[in-house]
Amino acid sequence: MTIKPLIILPDPVLRQVSTPIETIDADIRRLADDMLETMYDAPGIGLAAIQIGVAKRMLVLDVSKEGDEKTPHVFINPEIVASSDDFSVYEEGCLSIPDYYAEVERPAVVTIKHLDRDGKEQIVKADGLLATCLQHEIDHLNGVLFIDYISKLKRDMVIRRFTKAAKTRGAKAI
Question: Annotated catalytic, 37?
């Protein structure tokens, strides 16, 4: 397993729409393992493949509490097939937007259809932090960031801050 470098805002890669995975083979399973290793190292609770520069529809997550046994999950070609009319608000952060947090309102319960690392179709009904994390990571696969849910004024301030930091590092901007 290899820890991969994270793509950081304002890199335009984060706005790419990821393509479905056609075949689940050893390379895809290795990618899943690398993503989990990268996520745990960051540390984070979720990671979409695009956040390491791979535009494939895969995400990994682990919302287990600190000190509990790790419960890693791999979602290949995840799709939200149902969502509740009730909403919940969580303070979200993102490994690609380090040290910035904002409250985001999302459906409280979602049903996700996906393939697991063995290619078997799974359906997961999620609420709480798991529902929020899944929606956040699926958004990444569609080129959407959690800052897209905050006011334009706040979003523009965040983008300006990260663009300035990227220029200092010599990185490319959105």
Answer: no
